[in-house]
Every structure is written in structure tokens, then in C-alpha cells.
Amino acid sequence: MKKLILTAVCMVGLSACDQSAKITEKNIKNEKQAVGSDKDDHGCIASAGQTWSELKQDCIQVFNEGFRLNPVAPQKDAAVISAFILLSDDQSKLELFLPDQTDHHTIILNKDAQGMYQNDQYTYDPDKSVLYVQGIEKYKGNVE
Fold first, then answer.
1. Mind spelling out the 3-state secondary structure of 33-83?
2. Does pTM top 0.90 for this prediction?
3. For labelling alongside 77, which of 3, 12, 48, 57 has CA 20 to 30 A away?
4. What does the domain layout of the chain look like in residue ranges?
């Protein structure tokens, strides 16, 4: 009788351990599925550095396809966070990607007769590679 009770207790104990292992295994599988599942409304994967471009009508990595503009007055001991611009194929429009842009609102600048790209708040001078925000020079590219 003691052997029967001991065997029953061992079986219950072993099955409880097995259930715990199955739950842990299931949690690991769920975590693996979550990686890269941070797609936005356009299907761009933020963890892969993708963002939606209105000009290209596609997900892009602005740091690979855009032109980098660095702040003209970076803060001391702070990370340099760049802005990026992307030109349309016919170079009549410019899409602006700013580092402090949290609402993912697209900023499009149109080329004027003088060759400058601008809208109400922003002006980009392609000859100097300078972005002006409300008339103040804020970002500049490395043009030599």
C-alpha cells in the first residue's frame, strides 16, 4: 500500500513539473513571435529602422536613403541627433524627417523658382545644404 501511495505521489509530482515546463516553453514561443511585430499602419517595422515616406510611397530607412543634416549648435556632451531629407525623383519636392518629430506627420517642402524648398515653417537651401526653421539656421549637411 505504501508503494502505491508513493508511486501516486511521484506521478503527480512529475506531471506538475511537466506542466510548468510546457507553460515556460509556450511563453518563450510567444516572446519569439513578438520580435519585429511592431508594424505601423503602413506596414513599416520601427525596430528595423523603417519609417513611411510619402514621396516614395514605401517604407524606407531614412539613414540609408536620405541625406543627413546635423544640428548647427549641438548641445555639449549630448548625442548628435540628425535630421534627414529625401528628394522626390524629379527633385520638385523634399520630404523632411526631424529627430523631435513624434507624431510622424509628413513634412513636404516644395521647390520654388529660386531653387529653395520651403513651406510655412521650413526652408531648405540646397546650395548651402542648410535647413532653416522659422528663418533660423538649425541643421546643416556636409557639403564641400
1. HHCCCCECCCCCEHHHCCEEECCCCEEECHHHHCEEEEECCCCCCCCCCCE
2. no
3. 48
4. 46-73+80-141
